[in-house]
Amino acid sequence: MTPTGTLQVADPVLDVRGLSARYGHVEALKSADISAGKGELVAVLGPNGAGKSTLLRAIMGLIPNEGEVRFLGNSLPRRDPVGAATKGVVLVPEGRGIFGPMTVLENLELGAYKIGGDRQEMERRLTHVFELFPRVKERLKQVAGSMSGGEQQMVAVGRAMMADPKVLLLDEPSLGLAPRVTGEILETLGTLSASGLPVVLVEQKAPLALKLACRAYLLSLGRIVATINPREVKSHDELAQYYFA
Ligand SMILES: Nc1ncnc2c1ncn2[C@@H]1O[C@H](COP(=O)(O)OP(=O)(O)OP(=O)(O)O)[C@@H](O)[C@H]1O
Asked: What pLDDT does 244 receive?
């Protein structure tokens, strides 16, 4: 796992400028700027309640927001999550959001609902998911809710890939998972970004995310307080000043 890319993105696929969001009186996100270009995996780090999930929800238009989200050079409408997903901005939410009573295959096929009855395209996308997560292929008929947490996360990422994303947003995919399976999933995200797909990874486990990311944004109390080049972080203690500020 090696960091790729640079701190400057010339032509970002996703370019978030001055994005703010509030819940009632709580200003959860304050004028955040982040970007992700082709082949980049960028991490969003920060302690509990820093605003990481809010940032992803605001990018998707799931919550009221101010500011601008530019995607492939055009502004996304402020509150149109379905439109954003249809264009290729795809979120793997915290908690995975898979449909427990449905089979693994049904969950995956739902991710590609846009293509309708095009079986050939469906098979092509499924093959790609099986290459990424061979274990998923072995469990296609299993009810998704009966899988382990790690397997469910693989299905969640797989379902997002079935939508043929142009940028992939993930909210703490490692939550509650054992280190080995977390490593497997993060390594797959590294493979995806190396193949060109921009990935925005919200993660509390900073050391893991920094191994993969070309750039990390540190959120604290709703504000991006640092943009980090992971290659320049000598020890995790350097980040602690922001976590405990
Ligand atoms: N639905 C909501 N209603 C009111 N306040 C909320 C809501 N969701 C989040 N908040 C508040 O907004 C702030 C940011 O929350 P957010 O979930 O974005 O943080 P986070 O960095 O993702 O935290 P965690 O790592 O614990 O998931 C917190 O103060 C939180 O309490």
From this structure: 56
Q: Which amino acid is at 134?
A: P
Q: Note whether 206 and 133 are same-domain residues.
A: no
Q: pTM score, two decimals?
A: 0.94
Q: Which domain holds residue 138?
A: 98-164
Show the ligand 1 pocket: residues with CB < 6 angstroms.
Answer: 23, 26, 28, 46, 48-54, 204
Domain shared by 133 and 188, yes or no: no
ipTM associated with this complex: 0.97
| Residue 49 shares a structural domain with residue 75 | yes
Last residue of a domain, one of 164, 191, 221: 164
pLDDT digits (tens, 9 = 90+) for 156-185: 999 999 999 999 999 999 999 999 999 999
Distance of CA 112 to the CA centre of its chain: 18
The pLDDT tens digits for 62-88 are: 999 999 999 999 999 999 999 999 999
Tell me the C-alpha distance between 115 and 121, whole Å: 8
* Residue 219, pLDDT score: 96
Q: Are residues 43 and 144 in the same domain?
A: no
Phi first, then psi: what are they for 100, rounded to 5°? -55, -45
For ligand 1, the distance from its centroid to the CA atom of residue 217, given in whole angstroms, is 17
The torsion angles phi and psi of 28, rounded to 5 degrees, stand at -85, -25
> Which of 27, 52, 202, 224 is the best mutation target for the ligand 1 pocket, counting ligand atoms within 8 Å of the beta carbon and taking the most?
52
Mutate to test the pocket of ligand 1, among 19, 20, 26, 34 (most ligand atoms within 8 A of CB): 26
Are 9 and 35 within 8 A, CB to CB? yes
